[in-house]
Structures are given as C-alpha cells and as structure tokens.
Amino acid sequence: MVTKRETPEQTAPTAGGRPRLLLLDGHSMAFRAFFALPVEKFGTSTGQSTNAVYGFASMLVKLLRDEEPTHVAVAWDLSGPTFRDEEYDGYKGGRSETPPEFPSQVPLTQDLMRMIGVTNLSAPGFEADDVIATLAHRGCEAGMEVLIASGDRDAFQLVTEDCTVLYPGKSLSDLRRMDPEAVQDKYGVPPERYRDLAALVGEKADNLPGVPGVGPKTAAKWITKFGSLEALVERADEVTGKAGQNFRDHLADVLRNQRLNKLVTEVPLESDVRDLGLGETDRAGVDALFDNLEFASNLRERLYAVVRTGDDGREGAEDGADVAGFDVDVTVAETGRVADWLTEHASADGVTGAAPAGIALEGTWGQGTGRVDGLAVTVAGGASLFVDPTLLDASDNEALAAFLADPARPKVVHEYKGALLALGAHGWELGGVVSDTALAAYLVQPGQRRFDLLDLCRKYLGLELEEKDDGAQLSLDLGEEVENGRGHGLAVRAAAVRDLAVVLSAELDRRGGDHLLREVELPLVDVLARMERAGIAADRPYLEELQGEFAAAGRAAVARAHEIVGREFNLGSPKQLQQVLFEDLGLPRTKKIKTGYTTDADALAWLATQSDNELPGVLLHHRDQTKLRTTVEGLIKTIADDDRIHTTFNQTVAATGRLSSTDPNLQNIPIRTDVGRRIRRAFVVGPGYQELLTADYSQIELRIMAHLSGEQALIDAFNSGYDFHAHMAAQVFDIDVEEVDGEARSRIKAMSYGLAYGLSAYGLSQQLGIAPDEAKKLMEDYFASFGGVRDYLHEVVEQARKVGYTETILGRRRYLPDLTSDNRQRREMAERMALNAPIQGSAADIIKVAMLQVDAALTEGGHASRVLLQVHDELVVEVAPGEREAVENLVTHEMGTAYDLRVPLGVSVGSGQNWHDAAH
Q1: What keywords is this UniProt entry annotated with (predicted)?
Q2: 174 CB contacts (<8 Å, ≥6 apart)?
Q3: DSSP secondary structure letter of residue 49
Q4: N or C, fewer C-beta in 10 Å, the chain?
C-alpha cells in the first residue's frame, strides 16, 4: 500500500545541511496511543473511538516540531501473513486479542496522514519494521540523517551514527534517543550485535522463546566474550554451567530467533526516500475529519503549526501576495467627536446607505457579564472609528449608544452574544444586528468544532490575518501596532467581519439556511444573553453542607476499603487496585488491557455481581462520592457576588443544533440517583420571585420519529392513552399491555431511543447487557411491528447519500461527505450521524422555537417572570409573585404549539422552591 498526496518534492536540508528522514512505525505508535489514553474518554457521539487517532496525532505533532524533518513516512503492517509466519507457525502467537475499539481507528489515522502530506507505506509479505529498515538503509546511503520512531526493540539493530531510534518512555511525550552509545549503555552490546542478544534472550511479544535462565546481562557477556552469536555457536562447548547447557539445548530456537528478527533492507517499494518530502496539507479534509471525530480545537492548532499549509500567510508574503485585503482608514475617537464621525459615515441615510457596519470589540465576556476595552466600527469604503470607552464624554456615550441600539442601522458582528454581554455591562444595547459570522458559519458547516474569525477569513476570504496579543488587548493586525497606529488591528477585524458576512450569507442562501439564522438563531442570542445575565440563585450553605457530606462519605469508603483488605492502599491507583482485587483477594479477572486487568466502573460493577466480597461496591461508592464532591466544589466556585450561578450557553458546539452549557455545565447536573438529585435542591428561587417552574417535552425524540416516519402504529401508540413504552412492548412481544413487565418495557424503551440515536445491534446489546444475537432479534421483532420506522431509517441514509446532507423539520442541514467515502469506518460513522441528525436536530429546532415563543409571550403579557435555563428539552422559569397560573398556561401553550407534528407535543410542568422540588 502506498498513499501519498501529489505535492512538490521537499528537499530542504536541516540546519546541519543534511535532509532529515523521519520514519514512524504506524501500528506501534497507534497501539501506544490507544493504551496511553483512556478509550472511554475519547469517542464521538456516534460511538466511534478516537483515542488512538488523537494520541497518534499528538505524538506526530511533537516529532515534527522537535525534529523538523524534511522527509516523513509511516510504515504500517498488513493483515496477511509474512515470510516469518511461513517459517514459524507460532510467530506472534502469544499476543493478546486486539481491543475491538482499535482496528477502526487505523484507517482514520492513515487518512489523517494522507491529508497532511505524509506518505503511508506497506508491503505484502513484510512487516512495517522491514519497510522502515529498507527506507532507513536507503536514507543513509543517500546522505540523510534518519530518525525512527518505534516501540519495537528490533529497530535497535538499525542504529548507526546516521540513524537514531526514538524509543517510547513512560508517557506519550517521552521519547528516548537510542544512538549507538545509548544502545551500548543500555544492553552492553553495540547496535549491530543487538540482534544476537535478542536471539538469546527471546522476545515475548513475538512469541520467540529465548534460552531459559539467560537474560540481557548474561547474553551481553557471552557476545562480548566471543564477539558474535556465530562465534558463540561455534564455541558453544566452552560455555559452562547450567546456562551453557540450556544454550546448547535450545540452540535451534536461538538460530531461528536470529533469522526471524533480522530486518529486511531490500523490500520492494514504489516510493524512493527522496519522494517522501512532507507534502502540502489538505486543510479542508483535516477540518472535516477532526469535526467528525469531535476533536477539540487545540490539537488542530498544534497540527497546523508544524505541517505545510498552502495558505500560510508567511509564504504568501514572500511570494508578494496580498495577505491583508483590507484597506481601512482609522479615526481614533477624540473626546466629544464621536457624534460627528457617526453622522458623516454611519448614519442610516448617509453615504453608506443600508450597507451593514462591521463591529469588533476588545474585551472579555462570560458568566452573564463582560467588559469593553475597545470598539471599532468599519463601514463600506473602509472608514473606521476606534473608540476607547475611557476617553468618552457624555455626548460621545449618548451618540454611540444611539448608534449601537438603532435597529435601522444594520450591523454585523462576530460572536453576537459576547458583544451583547460586554456592551450591556457598559450600559449599551446592540440592535440592528443582521448577521453573526460565527453563527452563520456554524449553520453552513455545523460539524465544525471551532468558528474562530482567523480560520473563517482564511477559509472563506482566502486571507491570512495575524493574531497579536499585547497584554490586555487581543486584536488582529497586519504589522506592528506602532506602525499602523492604535486601533488598526480592531478596525481590520471589523472590516473582515463585514466581508465575511457577505460571503456566508450567499453560502447560507445556497444551502437554504438563511431563514434559520434570521428567524431562530439570531433572535435566540438575545434570549440567551438575558438568561445568562439573570443566572439562577444558588444556596451556598446547602452546597457547602453537601460538599462536606460527600467528602466524609468518600473518606468513609476509603476507611472501609482498607478495613476489608487489611491494609492501606491508594483507591485511585489502577495498579494498586489490580494487586488488591486480583492478587490479594483473588477475584475473577476482568478485561485484559496493556497494564493488566481493567478496574473501570463497568468492571467493578461486574465484579460486584461475581463475588460476595464487598470491596467492588465500596470502590464504586467511593468514585460516586468523589465525583459528586467534585461537582459540588465546581458549583460553589462559580457562585457570583449576587449569589447566582451564571452559566454560558453555546449555540455553535453541537452539530445537531442543540445548545450546550459551560462554566459550569448546568445541563449535566446528576439526576439518575437520589443523592445526585439532591444537588438540584441547591438551585433555588431568588429574592423577589415566588417559585421555580419547570416544563419539558415528553418523549420528544420518539414523537419526532413518529412524525418523520409516518408509522401509523407508532402514532397510535402515542394516542392510545396507555403508557407509551408499555404499549410498544405489547405490540413487539404480542402480549396484552397489562402483561408487560418492567424488563420488557425497559428493553423496548432502550430500543426506541437507541434507534433515534443511531444505535446498532451491538450497541443495544452492550446497553442492555444481552448477547448481540439477542439484540439483533429484538431489533428485528421491533421492525416487524413498526416497519415504517425501518423504512424511514433506511431512506434517510440513502437520501443523505444522494444529496450529501440530512435535514431537520426546519431545514437545518448537516453535510456528510463521508457517506460516500471508500473508508468503511468513516462511511459507517457518517451513516450513524445521518440516522440521528434529523431527529436530534429537529428536537433542537423545536425547543429553540419554544424558547422564542415563551420569551415573546412573557414580554407581550407584561409578566415579570423570566426563563433562566434550558436543559435539553426542559425550560426552567423563575415565576414572579401572582403569576403562577398565567405562566404555567403560557409556557404549556407556547411549548405545545412550537411545531405541528402528527402527534401532540406533550408538555409536563412542575413547580417548587428549588429545582429538585419543581421536577415532575
């Protein structure tokens, strides 16, 4: 296999004057990444594990940054047999089974390599080590400096003055440089004799047994004395003692080992070392892949800093390209002169007409407030005003406030909500906003993970802006601040926003999403900003009491665990837990991992059912209490001076359109256990209000599935008057509703929601704890009763494959180019996204429309009650005195009429003095 981007050859020498060739052992590095990062913490919402891809990319970034190679290749093992398997049936036979989460990550990693211009190489009948050995040999012959990143010690035989092995240490970032001196110091033999030593000692990973009782020190002593393994074999009778006899008895194994561990340096390859220059990065491809894998933006930034990107601003500057593109004429506002500039350049009937003005801010915002350190207004033609709020007089403030609030003067901004919070803290309102370029870009490509202005300008305008950070101010600039004058960078940012808004508006029109921006997302910004400003009242003393209680419970669990075992140990150490559980107590072994046997939560829960020993349950309790204590501590830290918690709602994070909550995440307050639900008691009604009211949609995803699929039996189930899941179970299992027990109901409930989220038969089996075949049969029985659901799920994927996207009931699109990918893992991941995006996205559409309608109705009705939180399908309202009945009726009506489905939108309402008591 050879995959390489068609790019110009890169032959620039290193600082020392020689090209540097970096060779990576693909599977070795990928496995190391897989076992170094917890698989349960690295995965997509559709179930694709990503820890190996993420770790591999992180290691590669460090290698490219630290080593600065001119040529790079990754060698991969193929699944077929090699010449070593043909000689020895037991070759690598002792290796543990590959974790099921690993194989699908290899093609994704290979795709990433191709996209960043790194060549992937494999050869049938040979291992990756042989490919590396061949390239290393050719590289040294070509006068290159060669570096090999591998965790396979066989690579040490390749070490020379020109070839160094970068061998993994204790962490992903720890690589030891194994040059000739390091190999000699570590093993007592020079690199060219390491193969002899390995033949004597054996290699457990390859199932190559060595001489019993002979370790590296003894082997090195023999090789040093006799000079080589060949000489040792000729003089085998001179080796005395039991070790000598063992050597003679196992001589055939030793000679076989030496043959098998010799790396081949003449593998036939299609690529020469000079063809391995680091190619140009396909940024669009990397962006799409990282978005689908749901990687955070910091890895992307680190990667782009070390690979070759054709739109790099510095390269463009060297070629004489125009990396700016914005000609701004900046006026720094003088005290008392703001009104004059606005009248001349930004009046609704002035020279700019109705063209929107770009607005850019310097400052901070979050947790319901913000600060403005600087503001720039840029209009058509490039005229720009920079304002320092500290230099304004009363007339300036009045003029600027009138301009910012005037709905007749259209404006565009990047991150509208942040601007609302920052300006609002200064006493200014912001009206007339016709576009938020972050929101517009999100609607164009909802799968992206970041919508930074710099990236958007690069992608949509083909312009490179440089980010400058000089202390308190963060701006975009084209040169030194002293050269351009104060405010130039912020004016450029405002100009970039203006131009970007035009391009994104056209793209939204083309994709049919302009109405979502105008009618849903932009109006919602104002609602969310007011919710963030209001916050929700928190009972600090109660939270501190809970914190102490959870901490005490955690300490008690530690003491009980020590009592059970009879000695102290660290409950947070997997290594010590393995010793205690499987060695000291002799409990059944759990899933085998690289470091032993897993002690994760699922494993402990399983152990609790396999033994009468109390310890697994105590360990689970300790983890629960520790997690709860951490949650409470985090909440206490976020209580503001007004005794309220002000979360931040994000519109551009979830690809399905759902809102998310951060700092703190109030959508993740535990509610599954009684003790977790107690945390919700800490969220209380604030002074001047009567109670909290909660209202949420009942089974909204399933109602949307009934609407989209048109399945009459599903629609009838909602209208039957029976418990929905019991009614569904009765039809699937062909029994009366009264005969449905808890287990049958739970299985069908899991099935119904699983289908709404693209769950596979295997995923269902894991969720229900049943065999995959049983889960498959359950799914078949379900579809036999509800064939319209099966047909809908099939059609939605096939339709998306044809047009390239899925669509919600309001026309929110999610583009999925991987639906036609040749890579099976990427194609299946896109298929799962195609299954759940219309249902989850439609649910997001409906709750957003409901928020807008509830907010508008509260305002129009003159009510003092206000919406505080949105938690998935639930709204939390703070009810003013005397408004309880009116607000309940209003909320129920507006939520229930947010969209006309084929089944009614069920709304449940509750109230109380705190969030817990308001549950229903």
Answers
A1: DNA damage, DNA repair, DNA replication, DNA-binding, DNA-directed DNA polymerase, Exonuclease, Hydrolase, Nuclease, Nucleotidyltransferase, Transferase
A2: 168
A3: B
A4: N
Structural domain boundaries enclosing 75: 2-180+263-293
Asked whether the beta carbons of 696 and 908 are under 8 A apart, the reply is yes
The answer to whether residue 546 is domain-embedded is no
The residues with which 362 forms a beta bridge, in sequence order, are 374
Tokens representing 112?
């990433």
**Cα–Cα distance, 866 to 887 (Å, whole number):** 10
- Report how far Cα 229 is from the mean position of its chain's Cα atoms: 51
Q: 636 and 713 share a domain?
A: no
Domain boundary among 812, 837, 862: 837
Q: For residue 586, give the CATH number of its domain.
A: 1.20.1060.10
Confidence at residue 297, expressed as pLDDT on a 0 to 100 scale: 66
Closest of 81, 129, 91 to residue 267, by C-alpha: 129
312-316's contacts with Cβ under 8 Å and 24+ in sequence apart are 312/464, 313/464, 313/465, 313/466, 316/464
Angstrom distance (rounded) from CA 608 to CA 614? 7
> Do residue 125 and residue 56 come from a single domain?
yes
> What is the residue whose two structure tokens read 């849903």?
520
Residues 6+ apart with CB under 8 A from 47: 760, 763, 832
What would you report as the CA-atom Rg of the chain, rounded to the nearest whole angstrom?
32
Among residues 651, 669, 690, 691, the alpha carbon closest in space to that of 852 is found at: 651
Cross-strand pairs, 413: 359, 436
The arrangement of strands across the sheet holding 411-413 comes to 329-332, 383-387, 369-378, 357-366, 411-413, 433-436
* DSSP 8-state secondary structure symbol assigned to residue 909: E
Rounded Cα–Cα distance for residues 723 and 736 (Å): 12
Return d(Cα 664, Cα 368) in angstroms, integer.
12
Distance between CA atoms of residues 339 and 426, nearest Å: 18
- How far apart CA 802 and CA 11 sit, in angstroms, is 43
pLDDT greater than 80 at residue 583: yes
Top pLDDT among 369 and 81 is at: 369
Measured at the CA of 93, the angle between CA 92 and CA 94, to 5 degrees, comes to 95
Distance CA 111, CA 106 (A): 9
The string of DSSP codes covering 826-838 is HHHHHHHHHHHHH
Contacts of 14 (CB under 8 A, 6+ apart): 20, 68, 70, 145
Q: Give the separation between CA 840 and CA 847, rounded to whole angstroms.
A: 11
Report which of 212, 218, 219 is spatially closest to residue 194, judged by C-alpha positions. 219
Angle value at C-alpha 31, between 598 and 765, nearest 5 degrees: 50
- Measured between its terminal Cα atoms, the distance across the chain in Å is 59
**Do 521 and 508 touch, CB atoms closer than 8 A?**
no
- Asked if 814 and 447 touch (Cβ cutoff 8 Å), the reply is yes
The domain tally of the chain equals 4
pTM higher than 0.70: yes
In the predicted model, what is the mean pLDDT of the chain? 86
Mean pLDDT of 852-877: 96
Q: What CA–CA distance (Å, rounded) separates 691 from 918? A: 9
**Range name among 9-18, 178-187, 289-298, 806-815 with the lowest pLDDT average:** 9-18
Listed in order, strand segments (DSSP E) in 452-562 are 466-470, 473-477, 536-538
Q: Alpha-carbon distance 367 to 466, whole Å?
A: 28
Q: Any idea what the CATH number is for the domain that residue 462 is in?
A: 3.30.420.10
Structure tokens at 798: 């096939």
By C-alpha distance, which of 899, 758, 905, 763 is closest to 837?
Answer: 758
* pLDDT reported for residue 80: 77
DSSP structure string for 743-780: HHHHHHHHHHHHHHTT--HHHHHHHHT--HHHHHHHHH
Amino acid at 79: S
Both 54 and 131 in one domain: the answer is yes
Q: Are 531 and 871 in contact (CB under 8 A)?
A: no
